[in-house]
Design brief:
- One of its GO terms (biological process) is methylation.
- It is found in: Cytoplasm; Nucleus.
- This is protein-histidine N-methyltransferase.
- By secondary structure, the chain is an alpha/beta fold.
- It has seven helices and ten strands.
- The strands form two sheets. The protein has an eight-stranded mixed beta sheet, with helices on both faces.
- Helix 3 packs parallel to helix 4.
- The longest helix has 16 residues.
- The N and C termini lie far apart (41 Å).
Length: 306
């Protein structure tokens, strides 16, 4: 199903999601029958210059508050992947061209925490996992992050949507204050295989912005953002291991937005919370709960090392 956001999106947004238990999606996540999905594509860095000619034109504003809007493009899955009327194709396309509710919930929560001095983004190293449109990462950049990396399963999503969105929002006229090519990075691949590439990128690019010295114990990102990444039960262990590897110890924080349950695909925020509780190295705090009637309960959680 194609993305159906209104042209001037505001919070909260009633977008399509895996929230109706009576709908059969047929994506095969967690299913016991049917052929397994193909192996994931190799992890790779996508350069800022690799923007696809199939890009998200017709920019639409996503209103964060009275003083800030983030602009996003729209790309058809058929144009990029040759797939019609589908949000997910296991092993091929993971829904990155659609704007999901959790992405907007996450931006709203980040905005509230920054305003209330509960979160400092300025100068921080930020990673957005499963970025798609990249709105939370873009928001962090607009709020002064020193480095923002965007990860998605599909390189095509990064080239066709994330990079164009980043350019239009973060690469503005010099008088407005801008990012540079060394301030952003784009990485495609499966969560089970991308940790070395992400950590290498964080270290090399962060040196260019002088945010650490040789003796300060730099390792990983200060803030990890992710929205709607916990839908598939079988991918949660890889996602949790990746977060632990990539999060700066001991002060790093993770902001996670998602639905309490994803009917038909097995995942949800509570399954991810169970993983964290069983591991015992991170604490979790519920920051927001959204019950707007458009889907099942949506939540935003914060994780940090104990």
């Amino acid at each position: 199903m194609e993305d159906t956001e209104a042209k001037n999106t505001t919070f909260p947004s009633s977008l399509f999601s895996f929230s109706n238990p009576n709908v059969s999606f047929g994506f095969g996540f967690g299913a016991a029958s049917g052929p397994p999905p193909p192996p994931p594509p190799p992890a790779l860095e996508v350069l800022l210059s690799e923007e696809s000619p199939v890009t998200g034109g017709n920019l639409e504003p996503v209103v964060v508050d009275d003083s800030l809007s983030i602009y996003k493009g729209r790309v058809n899955t058929c144009d990029v992947f040759g797939v019609k009327n589908s949000d997910l194709v296991p092993g091929k396309y993971e829904g990155g061209l659609k704007l999901w509710e959790g992405s907007l919930d996450l931006v709203k929560t980040l905005n509230a925490d920054i305003k209330d001095d509960r979160l400092l983004v300025e100068g921080k190293r930020v990673l957005e996992l499963g970025c798609g449109h990249g709105l939370p990462g873009i928001f962090a950049g607009l709020k002064g992050a020193g480095l923002v990396h965007f990860q998605d399963f599909n390189a095509e999503v990064l080239r066709c949507l994330t990079i164009p969105n980043v350019k239009v929002n973060l690469f503005k006229e010099p008088s407005q204050g801008t990012f540079t090519s060394s301030s952003v990075g784009f990485y495609a691949g499966d969560w089970s295989e991308i940790d070395n590439l992400l950590l290498s990128g964080a270290t090399v690019q962060d040196k260019s912005t002088n945010h650490h010295t040789e003796n300060d114990g730099h390792s990983g990102y200060d803030i990890i953002l992710m929205a709607e990444t916990v839908y598939a039960l079988d991918s949660l262990p890889s996602l949790y291991r990746l977060i632990k590897k990539c999060l700066h110890y001991p002060g790093g924080v993770v902001y996670m937005a998602g639905k309490k349950h994803y009917f038909g695909v097995g995942g949800g925020t509570r399954q991810f919370l169970r993983l964290a509780a069983e591991d015992g190295t991170m604490q979790s705090d519920l920051l927001a709960e959204v019950t707007d009637g458009s889907s099942n309960v949506r939540e935003v959680w914060k994780f940090s090392f104990k």
